[in-house]
Amino acid sequence: MDTKHYLHDKEEVYRDVLSCEEGLSQAEAEVRLAKNGPNKLKEGKKKSVLARFFEQLANPMILVLLAAAAVNFVTVLIERAKGGEESFAECIIIVAVVLLNAVLGVVQESKAEEAIAALQEMTAATCKVLRDGALRTVKSREVVVGDVVILEA
After folding, report:
1. What torsion do the CA atoms of 104, 109, 114, 118 make, to the nearest 10 degrees?
2. In angstroms, rounded to a whole number, what is the distance separating the alpha carbons of residues 15 and 98?
3. Using an 8 Å Cβ cutoff, are 13 and 3 in contact?
4. What is residue 139's DSSP assignment?
5. Taking a C-beta distance cutoff of 8 angstroms, is the pair 98, 65 a contact?
6. What is the rounded CA–CA span in Å between residue 109 and residue 48?
7. Percent of the chain, pLDDT > 70?
8. What is the pLDDT of residue 1?
9. What is d(CA 10, CA 127) in angstroms, rounded to the nearest whole number?
10. Separation CA 75–CA 79 (nearest Å)
11. Which among 2, 7, 20, 68 is least buried, having the fewest CB atoms inside 10 angstroms?
């Protein structure tokens, strides 16, 4: 049978997914969960800390500050070559502020991701399923193939 179960009679679907009207037993549901994994979407790849750091530096204002630091650096080098006593202090301060800003941005982004993950865990969706002939509430990620899901309006 194809996977478009909504096109078939419920008895055919039960037979195809090895279930019945009373739902799966709790033991069978646990076996299927271990075999097939949780009922959730795959998460995208997380960016490395280094990639996040460079994303912070890609901000247009940061690029302007880095360009200003580079111009200042070149100007100081030229003045020193002429015998001047120019200081690299302004250049160093600009670069330090830019780096500090990027580090703080990465830290904030990491904390925000952790907070979102914690909120998702606290507000995990639940489903009502028949297991062992009884109505049970389970986390949506624990629903397995063969569970009889009870829909309510």
Report:
1. 120
2. 63
3. no
4. E
5. yes
6. 12
7. 98
8. 57
9. 20
10. 6
11. 2
DSSP letter, residue 2: -
Cα 106 from Cα 100, distance rounded (Å)? 10
Tokens 């009884």 label which residue? 134
| For residue 30, pLDDT beyond 70 | yes
Q: Is the predicted pLDDT of residue 64 greater than 60, yes or no? A: yes
Assigned token pair, 44: 């995208």
For the entire predicted model, the pTM comes to 0.63
pLDDT at 2 exceeding the cut of 70: no
Measure CA of the first residue to CA of the last residue in the chain; give whole Å: 30
pLDDT tens digits for 88-127?
Answer: 999 999 999 999 999 999 999 999 999 998 888 888 788 9
- Calpha distance 55→53 (Å, rounded): 5
Q: Is 122 helix (H, G, I), strand (E, B) or coil?
A: helix
Q: Flag whether pLDDT at 22 surpasses 70.
A: yes
Please give the helix or strand (H or E) that residue 148 lies within, else none. strand 148-150
Pull the structure tokens for residue 149. 């899901």
Side-chain half-sphere exposure of 68, counting CA atoms within 13 A:
13
Distance CA(1)–CA(19), nearest Å, equals 15
What the block records as the tokens of 82 is 């002429």
